[in-house]
């Protein structure tokens, strides 16, 4: 928040910075590649099994939740590594808490996906 006048150009630049962050995530965070593969598999499965509109909404929310927590977890890891490269139990706890958020998001997505996909897969058998 600044007192500068609204600038459309500055807003466009902000989007650019955000995409730069996402590129950085995909380049340096191995977990992000796993999320990318999982996202692709879910989209293909959704198209193949012709899931309904409301089911797509659930999937989009669940997948987005995982990506957001992964990015925030990466931020926490990088902040802690920037503050200190030393080993410290408090840094470990902070990193583990952030990792726990990703785990909960991923489990939430798995459960939501199971409710949507398992009945459709069973129906195909
Ligand atoms: N500076 C530190 N001091 C104390 N414990 C740390 C420190 N850095 C990491 N740890 C702990 O060591 C363990 C492994 O950390 P690490 O960052 O390698 O986890 P990871 O999730 O496998 O990493 P990545 O996200 O890079 O794959 C975790 O329990 C973490 O909290």
UniProtKB/TrEMBL annotation:
Substrate binds at residue 70. Mn(2+), Zn(2+), Cd(2+) and Co(2+) support activity to lesser extents. One of its GO terms (biological process) is phospholipid biosynthetic process. ATP binds at residues 17, 29, 77, 86-88, 95-96. A divalent metal cation binds at residues 29, 77. Its cofactor is Mg(2+). It is found in: Cell membrane. Belongs to the bacterial diacylglycerol kinase family. This is Undecaprenol kinase. It comes from Pseudobacter ginsenosidimutans.
